Amino acid sequence: AEGGLPFLCSGATSERHTSSRRRKPDRTRAMLRFGRFLQSDARPRFRVLGLQQVAIGGLDKAELKGLWEGLLGVPCMGRFRSERENVDEEILRLGHGPLAVELDLMQPIDAAKAPKVHSPPLNHIGLWVDPLREAVAALEAQGVRFAPGGVRAGAAGHDVAFIHPKGSDSQPRSGCGVLIELVQAPAEVVAAYERSRTAAGAPADDT
Predict the structure, then answer these.
(1) Are residues 55 and 44 in the same domain?
(2) Is there a single domain that holds both residue 68 and residue 81?
(3) Which domain holds residue 145?
(4) Is 102 a member of any domain?
(5) pTM of the model
(6) What is the structure's pLDDT at 29?
(7) Are 90 and 40 in contact (CB under 8 A)?
(8) What stretches of 43-194 adopt beta strand conformation (E)?
């Protein structure tokens, strides 16, 4: 995928049930910008290179490990704990090499506090993106809502930004109910992606 994510959902109110006369002006302008973006050959270009992580939450991390590591045999590669993020997690790995997918099994340190990493159980997915800052700028310009915090360093040291699961009146496009983490792909991931494309006989990306 490149040049944007046109499948991102608009806000909670469906266009099938809202006439153009009643649609709020901010949403109308955002949707018009998105239409022009899709039709423009000069739009900013970026690429989604693959799945970076899947984060699953629960009140009992041991139960999650029993399934993924014990029954399914997915190896555990490390651990992460953050009082600020209210998370105690096990980091598992699916596959090998730069394009391996990280599987995070998350348990809240305090279930009564936010963020509630156990709810929903599928907490978020992560995507390798290159270049991240251009992707964020392009998507924001077309009405995609991002979670507060902007681009910042993630737990693994890569720059990240989160597409909000819900849209707003001014930024109506969203992750369709799913929190989506965009992760800046490091050089080794970009190189592995290019090698996999070459091996598959795919045409060169026009970026």
Answers:
(1) no
(2) yes
(3) 15-48+128-199
(4) yes
(5) 0.77
(6) 65
(7) no
(8) 47-57, 76-82, 87-94, 101-107, 122-130, 152-153, 159-163, 179-184
Return the number of other C-beta atoms located less than 10 Å from residue 105's C-beta. Answer: 25
* Residue 156 sits in the same domain as residue 192: yes
Quick check: 139 and 4 in contact, CB under 8 A?
yes
CA distance 60 to 158: 28
Q: How many CB atoms lie within 10 A of CB 33?
A: 12
pLDDT at 75 > cutoff 80:
yes
CA distance 57 to 127: 18
DSSP 69: I
- Residue 22 has a pLDDT of 52
Last residue of a domain, one of 123, 139, 156: 123
One-letter-per-residue 3-state SS of 175-203: CCCCEEEEEECCHHHHHHHHHHHHHCCCC
Backbone angles phi, psi at 118, to 5 degrees: -95, -5
Same domain, 39 and 139: yes
CA 160, CA 4: separation in Å to the nearest integer?
16
